[in-house]
Design goal:
This protein is mainly beta. It folds into 2 domains: 6-216, Jelly Rolls, CATH 2.60.120.560; 225-375, Sandwich (Jelly Rolls), CATH 2.60.120. Helices cover 5% and strands 42% of the residues. It has 3 helices and 24 strands. It has helices at residues 15-24, 115-118, 310-313, and strands spanning 39-40, 50-51, 59-62, 65-68, 77-80, 87-95, 100-107, 120-125, 157-165, 168-173, 176-182, 197-201, 207-216, 225-226, 236-247, 250-262, 270-278, 287-292, 300-303, 321-328, 331-336, 339-345, 354-359, 366-375. A hairpin with a 7-residue loop joins strand 18 and strand 19 (300-303). It is globular. The two termini are 38 Å apart.
Length: 378
């Protein structure tokens, strides 16, 4: 089987190039045969290799295919048991009329932010022959429309070929190139998560999946440093009267107001991610300080809840919502649940500083699941 050498794709957009690629790199394996170098993600018999919790009967394996009945709606996604960064993925899907579904990549965990804004959702939908838009089949959901409409009508099998090799995302649908996107050049995609689970969506309509194969590609993402070990707060110090604890692998804080401050100092060019959960009806101003020096010079702050975007954020009670803070070239960008909510230009060259989590007494219980940081190379 022929496979892509991905660096030949540098924003190929012309119709002639697309035609040549389609002719020479079309899938060359027989139905139900594992392509050379690939691993099956579905064995045709059961859900080995997949997490389908909570299993309420919406998903079943029948006649060698995964069948989603759409009702009940849980689980909203079934997800691979393994996380993937860069990969080449094949899968077939067959939709019912008016079907709406999706293939999600780089899903970090269940209930950790909106899947289509943190990683990416490749749309699956019954819209054959319609003009492409950001919600069409093969769209990068809500961001990039497909280059053409290549989906077959409902009740016909379709084949996706998805190549994620950061920063390039190339997608074929039924042998036609429908996405060829440099994610680094798209401001709405450049800070999406780069490693995570693959998910198949249950959006209330029947759909079938089969012949799911994957081939991993080399890793490129800079290494994350986990700042919370899931056991204790040995890397942190506290200030104030808030009660910080570790319970069931999660930091919890309640009581008064106060800070959880990293002992380590970090260089300014970095990305920080904090996954926090609170009750959406509570009105305190808990959040993250970065470039923190001391309680007099607290650096910059972003809150865990952005009041101006509250409708779009859909902040669910005690669902872990990700805050991403990107410090780069004297500017910081803050993304909350996939939506940019803040941008700061430093008045002077930013210095190294600590990270501090703030808890407001008005917020009641606050939970922190993940705190991590990675260096950004300029």
């Amino acid at each position: 089987m022929k496979t892509y050498t991905y660096n030949i794709y540098t924003n190929i957009r012309t119709a002639l190039a697309a035609l040549l690629l389609t002719v020479f790199f079309a899938p060359a394996f027989a139905q139900d045969t594992v392509p050379e170098g690939f691993t099956p993600l579905f064995n045709g018999r059961d859900f080995t290799g997949w997490d389908i919790q909570p299993d309420r009967g919406a998903w079943k394996v029948e006649n060698g295919v995964m069948h989603c009945y759409g009702k009940p709606s849980d689980p909203y996604f079934i997800i691979s048991e393994k996380k993937y960064e860069n990969f080449e993925l094949y899968l077939d899907f067959r939709m019912s009329p008016k079907c709406n579904s999706g293939v999600t990549i780089h899903l970090i965990e269940r209930d950790h932010g909106r899947e289509s804004r943190m990683g990416m959702e490749i749309q699956v939908g019954d819209d054959a022959g319609s003009a492409p838009d950001v919600h069409s089949c093969a769209a990068i959901y809500d961001v990039v429309p497909p280059l053409m409409s290549a989906v077959k009508p409902a009740k016909h099998w379709n084949t996706y070929r998805i190549i994620m090799d950061w920063p390039m995302l190339l997608i074929e649908l039924n042998g036609q190139i429908v996405q060829n996107e440099n994610l680094d050049k798209n401001p709405r995609l450049k800070y999406r998560l780069r490693n995570g689970y693959i998910g198949l969506q249950n959006h209330g309509k029947e759909i079938e999946y089969r012949n799911i194969y994957i081939r991993e590609l080399p890793s490129k993402e800079p290494q994350w440093t986990e700042l919370f070990n899931g056991k204790d707060l040995r890397n942190w110090e506290t200030s104030g009267n808030a009660e910080w604890k570790v319970e069931n692998g999660v930091i919890t804080v309640a009581g008064g107001s106060g800070y959880l401050i990293s002992r380590e100092v970090f260089e300014p060019d970095c990305e920080i991610q904090v996954f926090a959960a609170k009750n959406s009806t509570e009105v305190g101003n808990s959040g993250v300080f970065y470039n923190w020096q001391n309680e007099t010079d607290r650096g910059y702050k972003t809150e865990f809840y952005d009041k101006t975007a509250q409708v779009k954020l859909k902040y669910m009670d005690y669902s872990f919502i990700p805050t991403q803070i990107i410090n780069r070239n004297g500017e910081s960008t803050v993304i909350l649940n996939g939506i940019e909510v803040q941008r700061n230009a430093y008045h002077t060259s930013p210095s190294a500083g600590r990270i501090a989590i703030y808890h407001s007494a008005k917020d009641g219980m606050l939970k922190i699941d993940k705190i991590r940081i990675k260096r950004i190379e300029n």
